[in-house]
Amino acid sequence: MTRARSDDMPVDAMTGEMAEAEIARLTDLLDAANVAYHSEDDPILDDAAYDAAKRRIGAIESRFPDLKRSDSPTERVGAPASATFSKITHARRMLSLGNAFSEEDVADFARSVRAYLGLDADAPLEIVAEPKIDGLSLSLRYEEGRLVQAATRGDGLVGENVTANALCVDDIPERVEGAPELMEVRGEVYMTHADFAALNARQSEAGQKVFANPRNAAAGSLRQLDAGITASRPLRFFAYAWGELSAPLAETQMGSIERLEALGFTTNPLTEVCPTIEAMLALYARIEAQRAMLGYDIDGVVYKVNDLALQRRLGTRSTTPRWAIAHKFPAELAWTRLERIEIQVGRTGALSPVARLAPVTVGGVVVSNATLHNEDYIAGRDASGQPIREGRDIREGDWVQVYRAGDVIPKIADVDLTRRPDGADPFAFPEICPECGSAAEREPGDSVRRCSGGLTCPAQAVEKLKHFVSRAAFDIEGLGAKLVEEFHREGWIAEPSDIFTLEARHGDDTEAPLKDREGWGAQSARNLFAAIDRKRSIPLDRVIFSLGIRHVGEVVSADLARHYGDWASLIEAVDLAVPAERAHLAAEAAVVEERATAAADGRRARISDARARAWAERDVSPDARAAWDALVAVDGIGAVAAQALVSAFAQGAERASIDRLAAFLDIEPVSAPATEGSPVAGKTLVFTGTLERMTRQEAKARAEGLGAKVSGSVSAKTDLVIAGPGAGSKAKKAAELGVEVIDEDGWIALIEGA
Ligand SMILES: NC(=O)c1ccc[n+]([C@@H]2O[C@H](COP(=O)([O-])OP(=O)(O)OC[C@H]3O[C@@H](n4cnc5c(N)ncnc54)[C@H](O)[C@@H]3O)[C@@H](O)[C@H]2O)c1
Ligand SMILES: [Zn+2]
């Protein structure tokens, strides 16, 4: 009931306030997805969902240009280079590509190219079409024919130095003959399906991370600190582009590709010059038909203007060239029989329905499970009660259409009622937890049913433990998901704090020593205990994240840690807010009710009145109210995360378990931003236009590090606007409001030395 309903609102129907909230939500989502995908090689969204979110934010921004934030995902490429590697600033930026999802989009692309160049509709325009390889891009710098540097794309401006790793890729020559004195060759690092399957088999045998798809495997293998590991991974490289050159390779795109081939690079054999749109679409269809047989993943076809002089005239937008576009393939589909629906219980108690399928090949991968999302999805309606699949429900025994969007978790698109077996009953979604028998409840406004058993539910306890030891949480060497599960089954570890008493209970001199277990010895047991001990001292943000509280992910945890600084201050603030949290829930319930009655009476809903009345009825002390408001106001938090956090700390059993854990730890404070002597501490800043000396993200991080708040839109509360070239409406608005506006040089001068 606390969920903002901006997420399913059509863009056309949004108010400015909803649009701003939705932009904030999508920005957070895309930021997190970008880091997971580009920096951690471990996606949290599938590509279709990612693309849809990005398109949605683009649509909102074009309807509300003033709300476009300085950190808009539509203005960025990839994710910043990881701090694990040294950094390389690209001599020429590495861009992303615009997307086309339909033939109409492709025709628009050709039209806009012609319009930009002032070409008639029937003037010849050659386009090179080639597969879009689903890997990661790499830039190779050759000086006097020798490979001197290799860099990942990073955020397009600064990439990671992976020179030693690149030298381990067979298709990448260390020396080339007859090349321009200075030559940057760009292309895609990827892994074949066969190599991917073999790698995952080896990884799983060795008890190590298995990769979700070949792209993640390629990225994870290239981005290794130890190039020896890269060398053991079978990576390949297709060259398709270039960066800085001391002399041109050729006068056309195709000519340049041929030149790269002649220099000893591998280029894609399906590359062709297309004289017309019809030829482009025909090649697209041919490549799509061959997709499953290629032996490596491609996710579309890239079209590029062939004439390099025209490419130069067309130039680039902020993140994409005007002379190229990626024509994406639709998600792949296959029909199969749904044998059973099983319910899995997750870390937060969510009951997730999973379809067990008769195995079927989708896009070259055998699929036997698919997510069914939630009970509404099975019943054929969405969260607001509107029919999906025209209201067709899904039953055990049905024939269903499966698709893999972006290769993560397969989904079900449709069901074939003509093949439904006789006597199939509608699926009865359980109202008690299949793992512990507690009531499974569904809060109004929530699409998910949750087990109310909390820590007494073994499924939740195990999932919480797995989360606790995960990489972004405690990350204890040697204590992975499998082992935690085993210890839990054995009764050795019931909750996180038990990890820290493991040695006392199962050390060498105990009755059931770990070293005597099968597969263990004195040394390996000692290693595990030592690894656990090393994590007794741990930064605050990791501790918060490790608790596995709903809506409190890595980003929110970091925000909380930065704001409160240490554990005691956080606990104090949250404890103070406890009485207000119930009132907040009551108020949000009152808002839902007011909306419904207002709609029934055909009048405008009086939301703020309803909220105020509910708060007044609850009689919350001013201190508690102030503590609650302060928590919600912490940058990056909001009511949803605040509510989840407070309720976790307020609950008897959960709180007791948190306290037991904290007692074993030395929780390292996170230093607050150095605001002393900061010229912008406490001020609200807006960045607009193009920054040339630092990226937006860097500028934002810098400003926040100095204690400033960075906002996306100019208002009377804005203290300072930093406007680069191309600043439009925001700079104008600032002038109208009398807000101070400075340029980038002014900004750098201001913060220099701070
Ligand atoms: N699942 C997620 O959470 C998530 C997160 C971020 C990005 N993504 C996916 O990545 C895409 C966006 O990332 P992006 O910025 O890399 O854009 P992109 O993948 O749409 O296109 C740009 C990239 O295509 C690659 N490419 C492959 N073959 C090419 C060729 N022949 N010519 C030119 N380029 C070629 C290059 O690496 C280039 O950088 C999205 O469409 C999304 O599907 C997914
Ligand atoms: Zn349960």
TrEMBL record:
InterPro entries from the UniProt entry: BRCT_dom (IPR001357), BRCT_dom_sf (IPR036420), DisA/LigA_HHH (IPR041663), DNA_ligase (IPR001679), DNA_ligase_AS (IPR018239), DNA_ligase_CS (IPR033136), DNAligase_adenylation (IPR013839), DNAligase_N (IPR013840)
GO cellular component terms, A-Z: cytosol
EC code(s) of this entry: 6.5.1.2
Family indicated by similarity: Belongs to the NAD-dependent DNA ligase family. LigA subfamily.
Annotated signal sequence range: none
Domain of life where this protein originates: Bacteria
Protein name: DNA ligase
Catalytic-site annotation from UniProt: 132
Species of origin: Palleronia aestuarii
Protein residues bound to Zn(2+): 433, 436, 457
Binding site for NAD(+): 47-51, 96-97, 130, 153, 188, 304, 328
